[in-house]
Structures are given as structure tokens and as C-alpha cells.
């Protein structure tokens, strides 16, 4: 698939098959994700592999739609507000790289923001200053939703003199 088709066909998956994900492949997508742009090459992303006990405690309303793998992605603190924002941006780039790498292999991802809630941060052991980018369900999609339409890019573009 071309990169354009890959980007356009990735969806936030809300129904997974229970089939397991190959560990080596998963690590390969995460390694690939590390090639995301990041200021000063500080690689501000960190991962939390969520085990069954922690997953149950998170009490996600649909239990991550039955995804066989759940991983939280956090970004490191910054010395300044700007650094903190840059770390979040770089980690979000990591997230999409990962999603697209998995998608190319036919594996879907679900992005949840529940990890940012104070009690979930505590449950995940996220230290102060770290930002939770998302908690991701990962697995083979049982259903792929239709893409929500996007606005034409011209409506999002201002031309400056
Ligand atoms: C920072 C961030 C947080 C998100 N949190 C949630 C969430 O908590 N629950 C959810 O269903 N989707 C969440 N999403 C996914 C969006 O809802 C989804 O990307 C959007 O509906 C567009 O659908 P698509 O990804 O299939 O194109 C999140 C996406 C981002 C970037």
C-alpha cells in the first residue's frame, strides 16, 4: 500500500479479534516508531506494557474493545513549558508512526485518552511531569469503521503575505 493509502485507510478500531499479535512484529513497529521526529533527538517517549491486572483496574468501558495487547505511551517531562510541549508532539508522532506500521501489517489500533485521568495516572504509576499520550488497544480488527469525512485542506489554510 502507498503511504498515502496507508494514512487514509487507518482507522480507530473499536472491535478486535482475540488473535494474538506476534511479539517480534510488535517490537518492530515500535522500533520503527522511534524514527519519529524529536527535538534534540531526546526520544521523549516511554511505553508501559499493560498486564491483565492493571488492565482490569483501568476499567475501560469496553475493555479496549477486546484488543489482545494494551500499551500506554507517555512523554517525558521538559525543563520548560516549550520542552514539555515538544515532547508531547514528538511522542504523538511516535504514536502515529506506530499506528501506521501496525496498520500496514493488517493490525489495528484504538487510541484511548483514559490514561490521563488522575486516578489512572496513579494506577499506571505515571510520575509527575510525564504526559500520558494515550492507552492503545492493539489487535487484528474485527470491524473497520468507515472514515469520517475531513474538511478540504483549503479550509484549514491561511495564506500570509
Ligand atoms: C489524543 C487523542 C485522544 C483520543 N482519545 C480517544 C478516546 O478516548 N476514545 C476514542 O474512542 N477515541 C479516541 N481518539 C481517537 C479519535 O476519536 C479518532 O482518531 C477520530 O474519531 C477519527 O477517527 P479515525 O482515527 O478512525 O480517523 C483519540 C485520538 C487522539 C489523537
TrEMBL record:
Start and end residues of each Nitroreductase domain: 56-140
Entry annotated with the keyword Flavoprotein: yes
InterPro entries, alphabetized: NAD(P)H_nitroreductase, Nitroreductase, Nitroreductase-like, YdjA-like
Gene3D superfamilies reported in the protein's UniProt record: NADH Oxidase
Record's keyword terms, sorted: Flavoprotein, FMN, NAD, NADP, Oxidoreductase
One Pfam family in the UniProt entry: Nitroreductase
CC cofactor: FMN
Keyword set includes ATP-binding: no
Family indicated by similarity: Belongs to the nitroreductase family.
Protein name as annotated: Nitroreductase
Protein species of origin: Paenibacillus rhizolycopersici
Amino acid at each position: 500500500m502507498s503511504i498515502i493509502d496507508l494514512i487514509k485507510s487507518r482507522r480507530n478500531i473499536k472491535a478486535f479479534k482475540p488473535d494474538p499479535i506476534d511479539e517480534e512484529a510488535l517490537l518492530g513497529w515500535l522500533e520503527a516508531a522511534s524514527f519519529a521526529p524529536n527535538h534534540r533527538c531526546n526520544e521523549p517517549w516511554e511505553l508501559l506494557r499493560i498486564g491483565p491486572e492493571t488492565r482490569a483496574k483501568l476499567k475501560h468501558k469496553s475493555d479496549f474493545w477486546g484488543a489482545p495487547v494494551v500499551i500506554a505511551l507517555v512523554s517525558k517531562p521538559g525543563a520548560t513549558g516549550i520542552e514539555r510541549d515538544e515532547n508531547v508532539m514528538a511522542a504523538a508522532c511516535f504514536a502515529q508512526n506506530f499506528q501506521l506500521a501496525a496498520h500496514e501489517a493488517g493490525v489495528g489500533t484504538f487510541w484511548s485518552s483514559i490514561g490521563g485521568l488522575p486516578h489512572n495516572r496513579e494506577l499506571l504509576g505515571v510520575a509527575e511531569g510525564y504526559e500520558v499520550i494515550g492507552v492503545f488497544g492493539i489487535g487484528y480488527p474485527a470491524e473497520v469503521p468507515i472514515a469520517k469525512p475531513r474538511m478540504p485542506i483549503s479550509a484549514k489554510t491561511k495564506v500570509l503575505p
